[in-house]
Amino acid sequence: MRSIRSQLTLALLGTVLGLAAVCGSGFYAWTRHALLARFDAALLAKARALGALVQWDRDHLEVSPAEQLMPEFGAVRHPQYFQIRRADGAVVVRSPSMGDRDLPSAAGADETGSFRDLTLPDGRPGRTVAIQFRPTVEEEAGDAEIHRPASSQAGGDRRGARLEPQPLTLVLAEDQSDLLQMLRTLRWSLIAAGLVLAGAIVAAVTLVVRSGLSPLMRLAAQVRTIDVSSLSTRIRDENMSAELSPIAQRLNELLARLGAAFAREKRFTNDAAHELRTPIAELWALAEVGLSYPGDPATTRQSFEDAMEIARQMDAIVSTLLAVARAEAGPPMLAKDPVDLVVLVRETWHPLTGTAAGKEIQVDWDLPPTAVARADGRLLTIIIRNLLSNAVDHTPAGGCLHIDGRVNAGFIELGVTNTNTSLTPADLPHLGEPFWRKNASRSDTHRGLGLALALAYSKQMGLDLHFDLPQPDRFRAFVQVPFSGPLVAPPQLPRPIARRPASTPSTFPEIPRHVIAPGSSSAQ
Amino acid sequence: MRVLFVEDSERLQRWVGRGLRSAGFTVDISGNGSEGLGFAQSSDYDVIILDLMLPGLGGMRILERLRSASCKAAVLILTARDAVEDRVRGLEAGADDYIVKPFAFAELLARIRSVMRRRHHIPSLRVEVGPLVIDTVGRKVSLDGFPVELTTREYALLEYLALRLDVVVSRTEIETHLYDASTEIMSNVVDTLVCALRRKIDLPAGRRSFIRTARGVGYVLEACDGAEATS
Question: Which of A189, A394, A482, B35 is deepest in the core (most CB within 10 A)?
Answer without folding.
Answer: A394
